[in-house]
């Protein structure tokens, strides 16, 4: 980025009203901390001032860089007009992750998640706990992602659970609702699913990939139940392990869920040209079409190990 592009990008930044005051306080506090450490240094006064100034400049640069890159999960919720969810993301039960995987042309960052009840003012399913997760996507070459030219439906963000078929625990079985928005060149996914805390006593993942319904062309399941992307899956993908609290697991609820949704799994691929899915198109009285995609009952990938 040249000087003019950098200046333009900096001028377009949006800061909170108290940003200057908070940053000044932060720098002053850091300067005091460094000054306290001067007894361990042999620098003269001029050198100490130079060290303090350099540290403050570096700290400010890091703060501004962070501001340029991400919205927080709470801010993403606010962008979706979800004040209760924004409050939950700022609360003690929220889980911050901030882990990044680079794949293809993208940096994929899982920012965080929170679970609870009655957090979504738009969700009519208020009697059940839900999990809300936020993921950020940006291009490695710096090209901004925009709402009008990003193909949201090409990608899937879904929970998975070790020891469970990816066909049993995923967006489709968890009644997911995903929404996305671009802000300052970064694309944000907000995923709402039935609470995944019932599986917290096992390894739970959040997968992001270019593709649709989980299948054995995308995932493999090891003998110990761990899940990974297939070695020959070359599309954009990332797999994050979620640090859930095992004490919040509900084995009885998990077992009931699996009894209802588990369709078995095998890593054996279908024969070439054999489709594992069947589709059905339904048209309502207003002419609106809904396409239903479901696994074929006789597809090889549905056979239990």
Helical residues, percent:
25-40%
- Residue runs with pLDDT of under 50 for 5 or more positions: 38-43, 55-68, 298-305
Number of DSSP strands? 12
Provide the spatial order of strands within the biggest beta sheet: 1-2-3-6-5
Distance between the termini: 53 Å
Structure report:
By secondary structure, the chain is α+β, with helices and mostly antiparallel strands. It is about 25% helix and about 30% strand. The protein has six helices and twelve strands. α2 (about 20-35) runs antiparallel to α3 (about 45-70) and α4 packs antiparallel against α5 (about 85-90). The longest helix has 25 residues, at about 45-70. It is globular and about 45 Å long.
How is this structure best summarized?
The protein is α+β, with helices and mostly antiparallel strands and 305 residues long. It has helices at 3-11, 19-36, 45-69, 73-79, 83-89, 251-261; strands at 95-103, 106-116, 130-139, 155-161, 177-183, 186-194, 204-210, 219-221, 227-229, 237-241, 277-283, 289-295. The chain is built from 6 helices and 12 strands.
């Amino acid at each position: 980025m040249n000087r003019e592009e950098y200046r333009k990008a900096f001028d377009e930044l949006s800061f909170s009203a108290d940003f200057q005051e908070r940053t000044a306080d932060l720098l002053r506090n850091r300067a005091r901390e460094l000054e306290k450490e001067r007894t361990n240094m042999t620098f003269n006064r001029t050198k100490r001032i130079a060290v303090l100034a350099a540290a403050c400049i570096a700290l400010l640069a890091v703060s501004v860089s962070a501001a340029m890159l991400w919205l927080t999960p709470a801010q993403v919720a606010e962008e979706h007009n979800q004040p209760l969810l924004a409050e939950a993301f700022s609360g003690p039960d929220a889980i911050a992750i901030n882990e990044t995987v680079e794949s293809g042309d993208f940096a994929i960052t899982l920012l965080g998640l929170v679970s609870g009840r009655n957090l979504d003012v738009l969700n009519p399913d208020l009697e059940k706990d839900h999990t809300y997760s936020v993921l950020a996507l940006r291009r490695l070459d710096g090209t901004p992602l925009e709402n009008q030219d990003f193909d949201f439906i090409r990608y899937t963000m879904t929970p998975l659970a070790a020891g469970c078929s990816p066909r049993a625990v995923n967006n489709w079985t968890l009644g997911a609702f995903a929404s996305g928005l671009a802000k300052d060149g970064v694309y944000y996914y907000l995923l709402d699913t039935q609470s995944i805390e019932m599986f917290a006593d096992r390894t739970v993942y959040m997968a992001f990939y270019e593709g649709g319904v989980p299948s054995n062309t995308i995932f493999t399941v090891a003998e110990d139940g761990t899940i990974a992307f297939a070695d020959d899956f070359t599309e954009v993908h990332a797999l994050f392990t979620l640090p859930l609290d095992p004490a919040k697991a509900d084995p009885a609820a998990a077992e009931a869920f699996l009894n209802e949704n588990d369709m078995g799994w095998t890593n054996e691929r279908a024969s070439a040209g054999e489709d594992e899915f069947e589709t059905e198109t339904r048209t309502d009285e207003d002419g609106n079409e809904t396409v239903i995609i479901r696994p074929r009952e006789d597809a090889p990938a549905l056979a239990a190990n």
